[in-house]
Please model this.
Amino acid sequence: MALLPRKKRCKGIPTSTVSQDHLGRNSPVGEVKFGEVGIFLVERRMGSSRRRFLTELARKKGFRVEEQMSESVTHVVSENNTGKEVLDLLEKRNGISRTGFTAALVDIAWFTESMGAGRPLEVESRHQLQIVLTPHGSIAGVFSRGKKKSVGEGRNQIYSGVVFLHVTREAVAVTEVSISSYACQRRTVLKNKNRLFTEALKVLAEAAELNESEGRYLAFSKASSILKSLPYTVTKMEDLQGIPSLGVHSRKVIKEILEDGTCSEVENILQNERYQTLKRFTSIFGVGVKTADKWYREGLRTLDELRASNVKLTREQEAGLLYHNDLSAPVTRTEADLIKQIVERAVHKFLPATVVTLTGGFRREKEFGHDVDLLITHPEEGKEEGLICQVINWMTTEGLILYGDITGNSYKGRSKDPGIFDHFEKCLSIFKLKKELVNNLESEKLSHCDSLAGDKTRGIDLADHTEAAQQVTVAAAGSKDWKAVRVDLVIAPYSQYAYALLGWTGSRLFERDLRRYAKHSKNMSLSSHSLFDNEQNIFLPAATEEGIFAHLGLEYIPPRERNA
Ligand code: UTP
Ligand code: MN
Model:
């Protein structure tokens, strides 16, 4: 599949006529094909440029889009708003009374799927914002002539508004698809076609995080994430038309990189002493931004200066500083597999039916990670209690653990208002991993797949990890016969296991957007423990991740496509 430049992508779209919009601007409007459907796009949280883009897209496809709210509107479409927020807004801005309101309040998903299908789809319950307005509960009857079709059925991403040309030998097929602003509605694999831009945006996000500027951190992280999900490399600014989550600042950065190859703001940050020092200090296990900043303000710059200073360190930070060299080398897939085996053997000594699962980045098929995340559960709920203490004690006496800090379960029953952190019993630890065992497992693996070339044929982009691989070599070249590795062990009661697995698989942004989607589109509260439906006032149990996606009305995204 190849992608052609965007300008050529208008083939197949009905010829547009030009008319004037309500502001008197000329805008291309296609022939109205679905007159019975009137769309009103709510600008709040969507932004005016995206709204304008979506309006034009829909009109080209023969939809009737109204600039103002009126009686002829049948679908009020909004993005990232709750039903109540939209109602309040319509009441305040447009003087629409709730009682006489007959249009459907739908999420952007309905719009994007309809654009993909090329016709208005039936409103399904997953499309509706949570406040039902009509006395009949829905206006599904409007589309009774149309056949119900879910765009999400295929393997396509859930796109809208961006035209991709798929060129085959036989013909040029035009598919018009759209990118959701929710990471949990995008499929993001590890292969990233826009690394030049995403690396720059990552630096800006990191810098914002180190300045404790949450809003900017999120804006740059979202921009970076959306570019990671694109199936093409951005080569000119027009390639970004209609793409959500790209703010003015991020666009400016991309533009500069397109023109000059680099972004001066990013270059300056990389040279900045405070940025470099805070990055160095926060790379120590147990050191957060506040502590790093404090040390910086006290005049400390390097790890050696820190070691030589009389700064009081926590037990965690002491271990972090002591093993810093090893801990900053990437953890390999083989090391992660080995640690999982070691933990499995240890827990089975005490409880044979215990299940250990590798989560985090490795479950998303990353080849390298900064730690190993293991989720532990037992099919008989309650049996898992107290297990971690026994296991950690035993492993410590066996010399397998260098540091361990167990936090008890602080889960106070199901909470409707989940905080950011989970309350599972867990152990943040540092393992002492014998290099010999790693080498043995590595040879075992190699004998299974012939040579490293196997990796290339599996499509893994080894070039992407050059830096990581170099560091691994350096770590392996050390004189000691072991390597310190960060391991998180998390204990989940069986009934919460699916939620814990989903929560610990990441990525961070994917998780954040799952929760945001649950809240804004479904009026539900999602955590690593449970899902609560605020409309029905009930918890929704799930035995699998698929079950959770189904509760949320989302298409299932497998771990390897959650690298948002
Ligand atoms: P990690 O920080 O380990 O990230 O958390 P990662 O994706 O595995 O990446 P690397 O390769 O180690 O750097 C894994 C997931 O666990 C969740 C986060 O959502 C994250 O995506 N998590 C982590 C929690 O839920 N709670 C925590 O305290 C830590
Ligand atoms: Mn991890």
The pocket of manganese (II) ion (ligand 2) is lined by residues 360-361, 369-371, 373 (CB under 6 Å). The first helix runs from residue 48 to 60.
